[in-house]
Write a structure and sequence with these properties.
By secondary structure, the protein is α/β, with parallel strands linked by helices. The protein has helices spanning 19-31, 57-69, 97-104, 121-124, 144-147, 151-166, 178-190, 220-241, 246-259; strands at residues 6-7, 14-16, 46-51, 72-77, 115-117, 170-174, 196-200, 263-270, 284-294, 297-307. The protein starts with 5 loop residues before the first strand and ends in a 9-residue tail after the last strand.
Amino acid sequence: MTPQYRQRSEGTPTVATTRAELAAALAAQEAGATPTPGGSGVPQGRAVVMTMGALHAGHLALVRAAREVAAQVVVTIFVNPLQFGPGEDLERYPRDLGRDLELLTGPGLLTAGDVVFAPTPDVVYPDGDPVVRVTAGALGEVLEGERRPGHLDGVLTVVLKLLHLTRPDVALFGRKDGQQLAAVRRMVRDLDVDVRVLGVDTVRDEDGLALSSRNAYLAPPDRSRALALSRALAAAADASRAGLGATAVRAAAEAVVTQAGLDVDYVALVDPDDFAAVGADHHGPAVLALAARVGATRLIDNTLLGIAPVAAGVRA
């Protein structure tokens, strides 16, 4: 019997919740694709955007970027239990599929022919917790990996599964989760996964705070204090533009979050590829990465900088 997938209404994306529904929706997507000549400038192929729901403008920017690079778009909505550690917010993580689906059908977003895959854990992990998992290696032992053991392993395991299930040509991830993006790129390279990984710039509110589903947890006073993260990144960027060295650039950011009294997990200047800390004599690209608790909410942020060689008389 042919699996049945649900079309919400004419002009809206197909919503699949099981593997059979997803397979049928992807087959229909492929059957309805219109061939276009190579080099025509018309988007071709399939792009996937992976989310945990609780969508905001940052997620929608990813979907719009996917719309620009591919003819067919798949958005996954799945709160992945493997990437939550003991005592983290798995149970209270916001879930509202109806609201997410409404947001996804806004201007420039999903239309008929696109697919939303919103499985439950038993669909993604039909045998329970997987015995065989992907490991992030050294990338999973620093910064986020050090403070959330197993987190990046859980991320990579579900990303690889969803890549297999959705079979995209392009996968898009936000740069706000910079270490996650670096780990996905490394996994794709090391395991010869046939997909192109694109990073999309962080979307911020007008006050500079990076958009995050966890921002909903912030009480108004904490929301104001959280702006120290983006101010710290701006201070590091100013120091970098002034020609200061790696040590001084990192110190500029640290001074801002320290003065704000945040509960800081780390302020790190790292290599963009492996997120290993760079030395005082480093010059070239580097990521300034931050993590801190504001009230009961843990937030991360980062920015890519160019560190100039330190000239004589300039602080390293």
